[in-house]
Amino acid sequence: MSPAAPDRAFGIDIGGTGIKGGIVSLATGELIGDRFRIDTPQPATPKAVTKTAGQVAAHFDYRGPVGITFPGVVKHGTVLTAANVDPGWVGESLVDLTTPVMPGAVTVLNDADAAGLAEARFGAGRGRDGLVVMVTFGTGIGTALVHDGVLIPNAELGHIEVHGEDAEHRAAASAKDRKGLSWEQWAERADEYLQKLEALLSPELFIVGGGVSKKADKWVPRLHLKTELVVAQMLNNAGIAGAALAAVEGIEKS
């Protein structure tokens, strides 16, 4: 008789400013109990971040599979890019580093991928077939592709060119502040970027997230897309929930 599928898993979301974790219901994507967060150590070296992630895990009475997100491309458990953390991460196996301080088998994936997976399964894209594209507008532009509920990992589509320039330099939320753009001006740039993605991918649904999604009324109505677009629902818990899902589905497992 095969063992019963787990009803919960543990997720840790490693970010540039904080490392947070929680136990997640695999039926609803909701946290079971509270989320726990510790500031990301500076500098965010592999050794320091691994120690902090272990402290987050130790806060919980949990044994079982663990999913961990990382703000960079992760392939077969190894970090390939590290834009907002210490460059010493590149080439390091996040699985090998964290396994000794975690309460179970470790699976790792990109942070935007985790958020997109969670939104597609539990949030704004729940029940939608076909290609769902999540775009997070923050310091950069993160993207996640989920087709019929299955994640297509490491789609770094924030770096496509728009008017000969890296899209995230033009249209990330940080560009609005850096260039002193009005909501109308920034929305025009976001619109250009999303229209280019639309032409390339022809998705069934766009989900937009990031800090600016909290002020969606100021810019989403200014977009001109043929594809349906909705605002992310899971906010700060999306990465944790997506990491927990990845833990039991073996996404990007080494």
From TrEMBL:
Entry keyword Transferase: yes
EC number(s) per entry: 2.7.1.63
KW Transferase (keyword) present: yes
UniProt keywords, alphabetically: Transferase
Gene Ontology molecular functions: polyphosphate-glucose phosphotransferase activity
InterPro entries according to UniProt: ATPase_NBD (IPR043129), ROK (IPR000600)
Entries under Pfam families matching the protein: ROK
PANTHER family (UniProt xref): POLYPHOSPHATE GLUCOKINASE, ROK (REPRESSOR, ORF, KINASE) FAMILY
Family that this chain belongs to: Belongs to the ROK (NagC/XylR) family.
Name by which UniProt lists this protein: Polyphosphate--glucose phosphotransferase
Gene source species: Nakamurella sp. A5-74
